[in-house]
Amino acid sequence: MAQQGVENAEEALIKIFDDYYTKVYNYFRYHLARDTEAQDLAGEVFMRVASAFSRYDRTKAGISTWIFTIARNVLIDYFRKTKYQRVELTDHMASEDDPIGSMMKKESIRALRQALLRLTEKERELIALKYSAGMKNTEIALVLGLSAGNVGIMLFRSIEKLRGDMKDFL
């Protein structure tokens, strides 16, 4: 019977990895300049998830909330240890095949980067969790210790600020 519990835990962890790896990776990619850093930190999250899985209590938090709380702590630890300069958006999205398009993309990315830097830390974190990690407002609220209504209002205001700053590029 104990063997069956181990197999079920392994199956659950595989499903969690399959369901959340891309979201966690995207969350880190939003915050970090290098792809390898995002991959390493995503790997760290799932190592922590695996080692703490037996202690996970679904009555305290949903799996998404639990995973992104771990991800957020991993990112905070990483920034603390490395004294890392945050980069919210990189030029890796521009293409060399189309020089004019590439130049326009790079300009748009620079403008968006500047607009994001004008947001507060909390506003940038909300945007990362919502759009990079694909979380629902209720999940974000649990991770950040806010009400879901407050998350919605803050996201709306943050997007409006970005739209105002980016009006020449939209």
Global geometry? globular
What is the tally of beta strands?
A: 0
What proportion of the residues form beta strands (DSSP E)? under 5%
Q: Can you summarize the main beta sheet?
A: none
Helical percentage: over 70%
- What is the CATH C-level name of the largest domain? Mainly Alpha
**Nearest-angstrom radius of gyration?**
18 Å
**Which class best fits the helix and strand makeup?**
mainly alpha
Q: What is the annotated CATH architecture of the largest domain?
A: Orthogonal Bundle
| SSE string, helices as H and strands as E | HHHHHHH
Distance separating the two termini? 60 Å
CATH-assigned fold name of the largest domain: Rna Polymerase Sigma Factor, Chain: A
CATH superfamily of the largest domain: RNA polymerase sigma factor, region 2, helix turn helix motif
Number of helices: 7
What do you see in this structure?
There is one protein chain. The protein is mainly α and 170 residues long. Helix 1 packs antiparallel against helix 2, helix 1 packs across helix 3 and helix 3 packs across helix 6. It has 2 domains: 87 residues, RNA polymerase sigma factor, region 2, helix turn helix motif (Rna Polymerase Sigma Factor, Chain: A); 72 residues, Arc Repressor Mutant, subunit A (Orthogonal Bundle). It has 7 helices and no strands. The protein is globular, with a radius of gyration of 18 Å. About 5% of the residues have low confidence. 74% of the residues lie in helices and 0% in strands.
Task: Please give a quick description of this structure.
The protein is an all-alpha fold and 170 residues long.
